[in-house]
Amino acid sequence: MRIERLDHLVLTVADPDATAAFYARVLGMEPVTFGEGRRALRFGRSKINLQRAGHGYEPKAARPTPGSADLCLVTTAPPDRVVAELRGHGVPIEAGPVERTGAEGPITSVYLRDPDLNLIEIAAYRTP
User: InterPro entries attached here (predicted)?
Assistant: First the structure.
């Protein structure tokens, strides 16, 4: 077996509606509703399912907790534009721009926190 890509991940959050609004406003993700009223965020070929703390669907992680995630999201926008957009939305920058290494090589990253204090890394691969 060989894994091709990540399809979706689940974030445990305090308020799915507030989280969906933040990711849509700040990161341009598309909020969607599926199943029996479940919330998610679609972007590219992936999505983030939102699960309200204490109300998870089975099966689920052993200890789903708001604020326990550390995600790296890739953008084609240059780091200075990422910084400017975050500042324009009034989102504090946790760190960056800083040089890191992504799955495919060198990246420049900017870090922020979402409403549940998950650490979100916005990364841009360097162009040759």
Answer: Glyas_Bleomycin-R_OHBP_Dase, Glyas_Fos-R_dOase_dom, GlyoxalaseI/FosfomycinResist, VOC_core
What tokens appear for 42 in the block?
């679609």
| CA 114/CA 11 separation, integer angstroms | 11
The residue type of 124 is A
Give 71's contacts (C-beta < 8 A, 6+ positions apart).
Answer: 9, 118, 119, 120, 121
* Reported pTM: 0.90
User: Given phi > 0 = left and psi -120 to 50 = alpha, else beta, which region is 85?
Assistant: alpha
Q: How many CB atoms lie within 10 A of CB 48?
A: 21
Distance, in Å, from the CA atom of 34 to the CA atom of 125, rounded to the nearest integer, reads 32
CA separation for the pair 13, 52 (Å, rounded)? 5
pLDDT digits (tens, 9 = 90+) for 19-29: 999 999 999 99
Cis geometry, peptide bond prior to residue 59 (ω within 30 degrees of 0):
yes
Task: Indicate which residues carry an active-site annotation.
Answer: 121
